[in-house]
Design goal:
Blueprint (H helix, E strand, L loop, with lengths): L10 H17 L5 H12 L3 H9 L6 H14 L7 H19 L1 E2 L2 H9 L1 H12 L2 E2 H21 L3 E5 L2 E4 L2 E2 L4 H15 L2 H4 L16 H23 L32
Helix pairs in contact: 1-3, 1-4, 4-5, 7-8, 7-9
Length: 268
Amino acid sequence: MQTDLNRPISDKDFLRWKLGRDLERILGTYRNREIGLRLLAEKTGLSEKTLKRIQSESSDPHANTLRAFYLYFFKMIQIGEEEAADYQLIRSIVEKETMTFNGRSGDEDLRQVMASDPIFRQVFLLSRTGLVLRSEIERSFGLYGLKIIDLMLKHDVIIEVDKHVYKEGPVTVSKNGEIIKKVILECISANLDAEALNERGMNTAFYAVEGITPAAREQLLCRIDEIKQEIFNILADPAAKGEERIFVTMAMDTLQSLGQPNSKGDLQ
């Protein structure tokens, strides 16, 4: 292992320190670092805000952040023999952090099922928002739904808390940006009708526009961050606790083939 008197000793300090330097190493390959940061966010699936936190070394990186970053890093950067020991240590620490913070991470087979099977995604989402009843799954998805339940039980994605009643288990299934987009669109499709999509100011699912400037895009991203913080503050208030269950999602993406926007920017 390389000797560096300035390198922190503890695992978390080392990870924070090393991750920041490896990010700088990749950004150094771009002539324009801001553009490089945006491209890196797209390629790793990490937000620009997360990457900036890595730059500042202001917080301990989450296991999923480490995994996403280093999967890309190892494809792009040639590791020399003198660095091999450090990066072997990083691999072992990532595995340990995954066990500590996330239970056990789902294997490749489960990730493939998550990506390809909409029923698996629906049951998975249900398990992360409350209890799952076997009878409800059978009524909604038939025998195939029960096979999904058995698969999730086998891999500890869900656990049984009462007879035929399940909740979130210790295993999490890694999800990339494409899977998350599928889940969001499926939730909207299942819970909002076409009329709701056209309402202004109430139950609006999308605002789709063409020809937005980079400055306006940055302004929207900043406002989304502010709104997320406001939502967090509201939900953190003890007075907000109650019986209602809600689902809130905010996402901004480039317009592909979602539909044709009308003159006001609402998706038809």
